[in-house]
Amino acid sequence: KLFFTDYGNAAKVERCDMDGMNRTWIVDSKIEQPTALALDLVNKYVYWVDIYLDSVEVVDYQGRKRHTIIKGRQIRHLCGLAVFENYLYTVNSDNLSILRINRYNGTDVQSLARLDNAKEIRVYQKRTQTAVRSHACEVDPYGMPGGCLHICLLSSNYKARTCRCRTGFILGSDGRSCK
Question: Which SUPFAM superfamilies has this protein been placed in (predicted)?
Fold first, then answer.
């Protein structure tokens, strides 16, 4: 799945398949400017920062179990969000500090460091990397991902795929070639 935020005419947090199909709103109320987004892949939770409401909130992948982690002036101007173990990590764009927030009680907030020009944060750790299984976009014997000439996108599950073409090309009637 692909998770993303939108704060155009109607602010929301959404998800869809990697090929853009099955687009679903998971949060569309009491939300104004959702910016940073982070996933808890193990427990299937979506965390986001709303910079207008000065809040960090969470829902499960279906948009249920919503609650506020932390709200208020102390988390104003956040950008970037990452989750690891018991904490959320974010960047305060006002003073360029890296913050650590306890994701279960929201009361334990610590400034860890200052970085010039920091706008995003990521946690790279072996335990956060999911195991890769055989999937529909694996390279075939002819060197084509999923049998697609240009681009292979996973669809509703790891066994299904959709072929797409680079800009300037159209997908052939066979659903794999590009012209």
Answer: YWTD domain (SSF63825)
Transcribe 2-20 into DSSP letters.
EEEEE-SSS-EEEEE-TTS
Q: In this predicted model, what pLDDT tens digit does every residue of 150-167 receive, in sequence order?
A: 999 998 888 899 999 999
CATH superfamily of 2-124: TolB, C-terminal domain (2.120.10.30)
Q: Which of 110, 99, 109, 104 is nearest to 77 (CA)?
A: 99
In this predicted model, what pLDDT tens digit does every residue of 127-154 receive, in sequence order?
A: 666 677 788 999 988 889 999 999 999 9
> Hey, where are the domains in the chain?
2-124, 134-178
Residues 6+ apart with CB under 8 A from 134: 158
CB–CB of 155/18 below 8 Å? Answer: yes
**Which fold is adopted by the domain 134-178?**
Laminin (2.10.25)
